[in-house]
UniProtKB/TrEMBL annotation:
<dbReference type="Pfam" id="PF00561">
    <property type="entry name" value="Abhydrolase_1"/>
</dbReference>
<dbReference type="InterPro" id="IPR029058">
    <property type="entry name" value="AB_hydrolase_fold"/>
</dbReference>
<feature type="region of interest" description="Disordered">
    <location>
        <begin position="16"/>
        <end position="63"/>
    </location>
</feature>
<protein>
    <recommendedName>
        <fullName>AB hydrolase-1 domain-containing protein</fullName>
    </recommendedName>
</protein>
<feature type="domain" description="AB hydrolase-1">
    <location>
        <begin position="111"/>
        <end position="343"/>
    </location>
</feature>
<feature type="compositionally biased region" description="Low complexity">
    <location>
        <begin position="48"/>
        <end position="63"/>
    </location>
</feature>
<dbReference type="InterPro" id="IPR000073">
    <property type="entry name" value="AB_hydrolase_1"/>
</dbReference>
<feature type="compositionally biased region" description="Basic residues">
    <location>
        <begin position="28"/>
        <end position="47"/>
    </location>
</feature>
Length: 356
């Protein structure tokens, strides 16, 4: 969606950012889809997953129009949504961040895995991946500030606070002092890069899934008058544009780019603060993390759908060229969203990164 609205802005304003292309592939051999079943480690110590007393968490969050959704995995995940009230220093007031976390007790020695979705999406895009990881990880799928079902309460939803609220979540809900693996998909990858480079004390490993990292900023859309930006946002919410983005996201379009998938992708757009959250992000100039990528010191897994139609194909090689401790896994016959189109393969590679 971010790429599509940049193209729209180019038509109106006459200019759009051009991604830099530099370097050559390192020659890293790309692993293909796994042929063996994943292994599960035995559970040992268990601990409750109740949030820290310093955050206020509700038992559930209501999602409007959920009764129109057919996919059981989406309904099940939406019914597990919780909200934590979090405050970021300098942000003006608390926000209510929505997420899906562990259901009941988890093994005390499980690695913590935090999932970050892409531009103007929600944690529901992990509905097929999340259940595949729960046996081996303490998993949290977050709704990024300004998107998903998180209530931004009309406050700043720029890059600084998108990352800042995640830091507060790790401290108050996951538990202070615990390192996590961040998995960022598309623009969620840019947020994960920002956190991995800026707070290496919090991030032990990084998984970049068809991640946006070399396309800095929101481009020409940032400079449009507010009334015109709001018009673009209404177009962004529209069925025709969502349908176009839906089809661009997959390799097997007939199988995955369904009306139900389109409806799932629009659920969060009916929130009262959807326009204000997107407007705030666009006017902030967006995320610019390309200069941070060489600073990533964590072990990093780059996973790429071989048939991604949204991001440049060379980006996957640029990531492994720039990040010292990186490996590349390419998933064939897969588009921009491996977590939706090939979740079994992605789950396998995430476990492989953790020697599970």
């Amino acid at each position: 969606l971010s790429i599509i609205i940049l193209r729209m802005a180019k038509i109106v304003v006459g200019r759009a950012p051009r991604a830099a292309v530099s370097g050559s592939p390192r020659g890293l051999r790309a692993r293909q889809s796994p042929r063996r079943a994943p292994r599960h480690h035995p559970h040992h110590r268990t601990r409750p997953t109740a949030p820290s007393s310093s955050s206020s968490t509700t038992a559930s969050v209501s999602v409007d129009r959920l009764d129109e959704i057919e996919e059981r995995a989406c309904v099940d995940m939406a019914n597990r949504l919780q909200a934590a009230e979090l405050s970021v220093p300098g942000h003006g007031g608390p926000v209510k961040m929505t997420f899906v976390g562990p259901d009941g007790q988890v093994a005390g020695d499980k690695p913590v895995l935090v999932l970050l979705h892409g531009f103007d999406s929600s944690c529901l895009e992990f509905r097929r991946l999340f259940p595949l990881l729960e046996a081996d990880f303490e998993v949290y799928a977050l709704d990024v500030l300004g998107w998903g079902f998180t209530d931004s309460r009309g406050q700043d939803c720029g890059p600084k606070y998108k990352s800042g609220v995640v830091v507060e979540f790790l401290d108050k809900v996951v538990g202070g002092g615990r390192q996590v693996t961040l998995l960022g998909a598309s623009l969620g990858g840019a947020i994960a890069i920002d956190l991995a480079a800026g707070r290496p004390d919090l991030v032990s490993k990084l998984v970049l899934v068809d991640a946006q990292g070399f396309q800095d900023g929101i481009g020409a859309l940032q400079y449009l008058p507010e009334f015109l930006t709001k018009f673009f946002l209404e177009v962004l919410r529209s069925v025709p544009l969502r349908n176009a983005a839906n089809k661009m996201s997959y390799f097997e379009k007939d199988k995955f780019a369904t009306k139900d998938a389109l409806n799932i992708g629009r659920l969060h757009t009916f929130k009262n603060d959807w326009v204000s959250g997107n407007l705030s992000f666009i006017k902030s100039g967006g995320l610019a993390v390309s200069s941070l990528i060489p600073r990533i010191s964590q072990q990093t897994l780059v996973v790429w759908g071989d048939n991604d139609e949204i991001l440049p194909k060379e980006d996957k090689f640029k990531f492994v060229d720039a990040i010292p401790k990186s490996a590349l896994r390419i998933i064939p016959e897969c588009g921009h969203v491996p977590h939706l189109e090939k979740p079994q393969e992605l789950a396998f590679y995430v476990r492989e990164l953790h020697d599970l």
